[in-house]
Amino acid sequence: MESLDKKSRDGLAVMLTQSVDRLSEPEALRGLWHRHQGGIPLPSNTALSEVAELARAILFPGFYGKSTVSLSTIKYQIGVNVERLQRILAGQVLAGLAFAAKEDIDIPHCEIDCLKGKALDIATQLISRLPSIRETLATDVTAAYNGDPAADNPAEIIACYPVIKALTNYRVAHELLQLGVPLIPRMLTEMAHSETGIDIHPGATIGRYFTIDHGTGVVIGATTVIGNNVKLYQGVTLGAKSFPLDDKGIPIKGIPRHPIIGDDVVIYANATVLGRIHIGNGCVVGANVWVTHDLEPGTKKYFQN
Prior knowledge:
The structure is a single chain. The chain is an alpha/beta fold. The chain is 46% helix and 10% strand. The protein has helices at 6-24, 26-29, 45-59, 74-100, 109-146, 154-160, 162-178, 184-196, and strands at 199-200, 205-206, 211-213, 219-220, 225-226, 231-233, 237-239, 260-261, 266-267, 272-274, 278-279, 284-285, 290-291, 300-301. The strands form 3 sheets. It has a 5-stranded parallel beta sheet. α3 (45-59) crosses α8 (184-196), α5 (109-146) runs antiparallel to α7 and α7 runs antiparallel to α8. The longest helix is centred in the middle third of the chain and has 38 residues, at 109-146. It is globular. 33% of the residues are buried.
């Protein structure tokens, strides 16, 4: 290709300059850019992927992680992973806290130091909760194993089943949300969503002995409450029926709008349960059913031609 003449090069330069000017206009940027407070970048997907992998390696040693595990080395290896998790997570929590700060006011250096201390404290508190998280995840493994005759042993559940990966991310993310961490909990659950096809909002409350068979396409909304010993199948949606609007026509945030699922409930494939309704203890919801009203305990609701 022949090189461009000077006139053509000047014309291209003008086009580029005009594009840069338009892309930099405040009106064009409104709501679409983020000012980094104190030079602290946004949380990193790469770093948070490592956080998720470290958490899985700590919670399920020998199933996740890069090291070979034995009883003689397990305490050392968990210790190494915990130390690394604390360091990486503290840095990411700091990024999340800075993200949530007001963009129009510079954070003083002294406040950044306070945020660093807060981030380290939150990371340490999360690690202190890992034993309880593992205890709950152990019940989820049991539920998945007992509910699937195709599973040969619980180890297969941990190693292979997407529900355990999704629930590990969710249960860690839920605790971080409870600790007041912005943005990062949602990033962790969305990573699991991309990996497994299971979309659980970190704000949802999920009891013990919970499982999702197959998993792909499951959606659990932010204000969903799920009791103990609940089983979902693929394609189930626990969603909102409608979004109340304020006087400007904008959806009102933060109000309870998703279902409350009682204990010992089974919801079969592609069922859709919408709104702040109660599904009573022991209910069975059949496949492809829409539920928008309360179900009394023990109800069995099926699709009928």
